[in-house]
Structure formats: C-alpha cells, structure tokens
Amino acid sequence: MLRRAFFLSLMVVLGCNFSAAITRARGHHHHKSKTKVQQSTLTLSNTSKHHRRWRRIFFWNPVFKPSHDSLLKQNAEIDRLELPRIQDDAELEQLKLDGKLVPITPNEALRVDPRLDPDRRYCRPWTLKFVQDLADAYHQQFGDQIQVNSAVRTVVVQKKLRRHNRNAAPAEGEIASSHLAGLTVDLQRRGMSKAEVKWVENYLIPMKAAGLVEPEEERRQWVFHIMVSNRYTDPDDRTGDKTEVAQSGTDELDDEDQPPTLQRAPSSSVAAAPDFLFRSLVPSAAPLILTPDAVAPAPATAPPSMPSPPAAPESTNPGGQ
User: Fold this and answer.
1) Are the C-beta atoms of 130 and 95 separated by less than 8 Å?
2) What would the DSSP string read from start to end of 32-74?
3) Among 4, 76, 150, 286, which one has the highest count of C-beta atoms within 10 angstroms of its own C-beta?
4) Which portions of the chain are predicted below pLDDT 70?
C-alpha cells in the first residue's frame, strides 16, 4: 500500500515537472520568435532611415549652398562697413538708442517667430527695408507672410547657440556669424512649397549678382540666411530700383513655362558676307561705277537676216498641172 502511494506521488511530481518544462519551452520559443520579429522590424526601420538620410544627401541641391567662401564674403562686407561685432546686451541696447538698429515690426506681409527674444528682433535699417520689400512681393504673389526666425545676435548668444547647434557659425574669427553685426536675418523656408522656394530663389539671384545680398540656404534649420549690404538703400548705387532688380529674376520664373517662339532669320546676300567667307565669290576690290555720260551708245545693228530659200527652177511647160 505504501509502495503504491509512493509510486503515485512520484508520477504526480514527474508529470508536474514535465508540464512545467513544456510551458517554459513554449514561452521561450514565443519570446525568441517575438525577438526575431522585433529585430527584423528594427532592421527595416533602420534601413528606411538610412535610405531617407542618403536620399536627403543626394537630392539636396539648393541654389545658395552654404560655403566657407560665403562666410568670408559676409565678414568682408562687415569689415568694409566698419561695423562692430556686438559683444553683449549692453552694447546691443546702446545701438538701439543710437538708432543704428531698428525694430522688425510684423504686418500683414511679415511675421516674427514668437520664440525669438523681443530684445533681438532688431536689424540694420537697410536690412529692414530689404525684408519689407521681399515680404510685400511675396504676399502679393502668394497671399502669405514671410517669417523672420532670427535677426541680430550678440557674441554671448552666439557662443551659447554653438553648444547645441553645430550648424551655427563661430562667434569669432574670419568666418564669424554675420548676425553679430545686425545686417543678417534668417527667413523661414520650412513649410514653403517648391514653387514658393523657387520664387524666393529667383528673387535673390539677381540681387546676389549685383552684390546687394549674400544668401545661404541652411540645411538643418531650413531657413534662408540672408546678409544685406548697405548698397541696397545707397542712392548712389548704379543698380537703380532694387525691386526691379529682383523682379527681373521672378519674371524668368513665369517665362520658363512658355513654349519657345521660332523667328525667321533675316536673309543676307553674298555681297554682305564677311571677307573670310566665300573668298572666291566676294570681290576683293570695290566694283567700278560707270556714269551715263561716260558710256557711249551702242550702234544700232540690224538683226541678222535669215537665208532666203533657193529659187525654184523655171518650168518650160507653162500649162503643166
């Protein structure tokens, strides 16, 4: 009896252990398969991100690509104007009091990023004139506003910005940020359509060619970084009306969709050809011109007579048939 009870209890224990082992095996298999699914999903996600990254690298080709040469030009303009790099808030406030920095005031065509510190919503007077002209033209074209994301900065602010924004320019040196002199603004590009970005680029192309602005299209911040020269409002500048200069660039955007027109080339004679063409056809000396008096009248000559047919022989028989 005891032996039977012992064997029954042993069978129960072995059965419980076997059931627990099967449960653990099933759980381990499920966890392993789930881990494989998660790893495959993560791999696909990483691959997708990797492809998107390379797609941005290969297809990002702006008109105004940031470069070391552009930073040198911006600092050369600051040196030409003998403008100081604003060191701190005390120097910034003094420039405001002197009227050398003017406030950027929002209107129906222009807005300011609400995250921008109100104490730094200032720029040089000619920079403000450029921003207002661009905003008015943009609003007239698209019915929307241009947004200012950044304007004047101090050296202290620029150094803090460099800690978390590796796209920011240095605060010192020959390639220091032109925001430190107050003649540069950042206009938001994020949210613009391709047509709007193209329009702004065409607006800036002739101005850059005329030396009025030095623009860059920043990649990580998605803004138009634009340094404006004081030539923009210089009355002695030979470029004339600056809005007409910009309009010449935007007109090209409207005309590029039109089909080309064919024009008939003007006909030209052989005598009008240059000397190096058709040397055998074009006379080397000027042609002789004869006056009517020097030309003797040609004698009148009778037209040549046709030979007369031979005479018929006389018939000896007058009554012939």
Assistant:
1) no
2) HHHHHHHHHHHHHHHHHHHHHHHHHHHH---SS---HHHHHHH
3) 150
4) 1, 13-58, 235-321
